[in-house]
Write a structure and sequence with these properties.
Number of strands: 34
Largest sheet: 6 strands, antiparallel
Number of helices: 2
Helix content: under 10%
Radius of gyration: 30 Å
Distance between the termini: 66 Å
Shape: flat
């Protein structure tokens, strides 16, 4: 309901007689709902959140909004892609969209369903029953990338979703209902903020090789599911939905042994796959990963890793496990003993929700090394981390300090001009880059005549990302 703002002022002339009351001015303020979208993060392992811009797994190129009636039974407005709407704001892994319409004076209620990165072809007048029968357009046939969608190059080039250099050109479909608390019924008045927690409609498999000398030559996925329902709660049964032929991985093994073949190397994004039921299936129908590897005197030995959990009473992998959407399955090859006995290999499969906001795909940090200082006495580095160091210097006027900067960041081109918050006594601050992701930092310090310790900071930043390194200079009194 539009709010009306009335303003009436009683004005008097210098004779004390009231002037004519001015006409009331009515200002119409359009109300709406702000949807706040959260996208599931990348790898749920605490390592380094500075990899945020490197991962396309939450990027949004399309975002379709389906407005249902209060009971969630019928679509009442023609669906629209709000991704390019001026009210859509995208920042990292959070997006906001303010939905404004010309509501009438009655308090309407609606249900809102969102689909990212794919158009499921629903229209005004379609029903929830139609949604529950909707199946992904993409079908798994031969490659793990079959079920992903091509990115929009115009959006990626704008830098609104992820770093272009690390974009694999694929987008993952996601869905969610808007909710207020536990309810899907949303009131359309009051300028409310409503949460929408998007959830991927696919799962992912990673493989970690922990066995010394175990060289993986080939990866294949069998008994994968061809399709999946769009809505997670759908009970629509899909028939003849299991592939009997091999699916190739999303991340290919490299010929130079740098991806997946070395001991301890994780094969990230080995496979993407649809959800599906393994519980109740015949043993020869259960989803499994086939690994062909060399080990010791064995060449191209085949190892089968099924989607099964251990039976507690026997310790055998004999309990089938379903594949769940938005779950990350990590296959770890080898135990603490790291042995392959004959044609068998010890392995574990862990499953966990694929929703965390911490990431394992670490961007190489800026490293800073003190090369030289022309002080008459030493200046010591007392603290050092991936984000900064502390340099303790004496009170007397010093000559020049020289540091070497290096980053392993892919695509790094240059460093921004360093800055300091202590320009009165940290002088001649210069940065000279070279062609090998390195640069040379130089600065001088003035004499401390304050009678107390003082602290200044030098801030360094790579212009390829938000990587920041701070040198804290503490000067004695």
């Amino acid at each position: 309901m539009a709010a009306a703002l009335s303003l009436a002022l009683g004005l008097f002339s210098c004779k004390g007689e009231p002037k004519k009351k001015p006409t009331e001015k009515v200002v119409e303020e359009q109300e709406g709902i702000t949807f706040q979208f959260t996208m599931p993060g990348g790898d749920p392992h605490l390592v380094d959140v500075r990899a945020l811009h490197d991962n396309p797994e939450w990027a949004i190129d399309q975002l379709w909004m389906y407005v249902f009636d209060e009971n969630g039974e019928t679509i009442v407005d023609e669906p629209k892609n709000i991704r390019n709407d001026q009210e859509f704001k995208f920042t990292g892994t959070v997006a906001r969209y303010t939905y404004k319409e010309d509501w009438d004076k009655t308090n309407k209620q609606r249900q809102f369903f969102f689909v990212a990165n794919m158009n499921i072809g629903l229209h005004r007048g379609d029903t929830k029953a139609t949604l529950m029968e909707k199946v992904h357009e993409k079908e798994m046939t031969a490659s793990s990338s079959d079920i992903l969608y091509a990115s929009d190059p115009t959006l990626s080039a704008g830098g609104q979703t992820i770093n272009v250099e690390n974009d694999n050109g694929k987008r993952i479909p996601m869905t969610a209902y808007a909710t207020q608390g536990t309810s899907r019924v949303i009131a359309i008045t009051g300028n409310a903020t409503v949460e929408v927690n998007l959830k991927r409609t696919v799962a992912r498999i990673d493989i970690v090789n922990r066995i010394p000398g175990f060289v993986i030559n080939k990866l294949e996925l069998f008994n994968a599911f061809k399709k999946a329902n769009v809505a997670e709660e759908s009970t629509h049964e899909l028939t003849d939905n299991r592939l009997t032929t091999a699916v190739t991985p999303f991340t290919a093994l490299s010929e130079d042994n740098k991806v997946g073949k070395r001991e301890g190397t994780a094969i990230k994004k080995a496979f993407y796959l649809y959800e599906g039921k393994n519980v109740g299936a015949n043993d020869d129908q259960i989803t499994y990963v086939k690994i062909t590897a060399d080990y010791g005197g064995y060449r191209n030995r085949v190892f089968i890793i099924p989607f099964k959990a251990k039976e507690p009473s026997t310790g055998l992998f004999s309990v089938p496990k379903d594949v769940k959407r938005n779950f990350l399955y990590t296959i770890s090859l080898g135990t603490k003993i790291d042995q392959v006995v004959g044609a068998k290999v010890e392995f574990t499969i862990t499953e966990e929700p694929w929703n965390a906001d911490d990431f394992e795909e670490v961007v190489g940090p800026i490293t800073v090394t003190k090369v030289h200082d022309s002080y008459s006495y030493s200046a010591d580095i007392t603290e050092y981390s991936s984000t900064g160091l502390t340099l303790n210097v004496g009170s007397k006027k010093g000559r020049q300090f020289t540091f070497k900067l290096k980053t392993d960041l892919t695509g790094h081109t240059a460093y921004e001009t360093p800055t300091t918050d202590a320009r009165r006594w940290i002088w001649d601050l210069t940065l000279t880059p070279n062609a090998n992701n390195e640069a040379e930092l130089k600065f001088r310090v003035g004499e401390n005549e304050t009678g107390k310790e003082r602290v200044g900071h030098i801030t360094l930043k790579s212009n390829a990302c938000d990587e920041v390194f701070t040198i804290t200079v503490k000067q004695q009194k």
